């Protein structure tokens, strides 16, 4: 299972506004949180499953032993999983 997977970032209206990749949905959510997103809904490409996270980023001092080109303060992301939803199947008939 060690392959990268793609996750589409969805906005409040359900439009897909970006793609983040990672081995797990959490890894993709951390990447989205690093870019400043707080309400993170990620649909795994090829599935109807949507992973929902609440994210934030805080500025912290750079770690010891980091490269000299890194600024003194860096953004550190943090996410918490809220849940998983399944999108409705459009082919379903009433």
3D architecture notes:
- The chain is mainly beta and 94 residues long.
- It has a single domain, classed as chromosomal protein mc1 (Roll).
- The chain contains one helix and five strands, in the order E-E-H-E-E-E.
- Strands 2-1-3-4-5 form a five-stranded antiparallel beta sheet, covered by helices on one side.
- Strand 3 and strand 4 form a beta hairpin.
- It is elongated.
- The model has no long low-confidence stretch (mean pLDDT 92).
Quick structural gist:
It is built from one helix and five strands.
SSE order and pairing:
Blueprint: E1 5-10, E2 16-22, H1 25-34, E3 39-44, E4 49-61, E5 73-86
Antiparallel strand pairs: 1-2, 1-3, 3-4, 4-5
């Amino acid at each position: 299972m060690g392959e990268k997977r793609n996750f589409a970032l969805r906005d409040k209206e359900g439009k897909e506004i970006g793609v983040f990749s990672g081995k797990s949905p959490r890894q993709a959510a951390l990447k989205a949180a690093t870019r400043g997103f707080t309400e993170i809904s990620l649909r795994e490409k090829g599935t109807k499953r949507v992973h929902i996270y609440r994210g934030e980023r805080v500025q912290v001092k750079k770690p010891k032993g980091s490269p000299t080109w890194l600024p003194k303060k860096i953004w550190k992301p943090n996410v918490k999983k809220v849940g998983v939803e399944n999108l409705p199947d459009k082919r379903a008939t009433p």
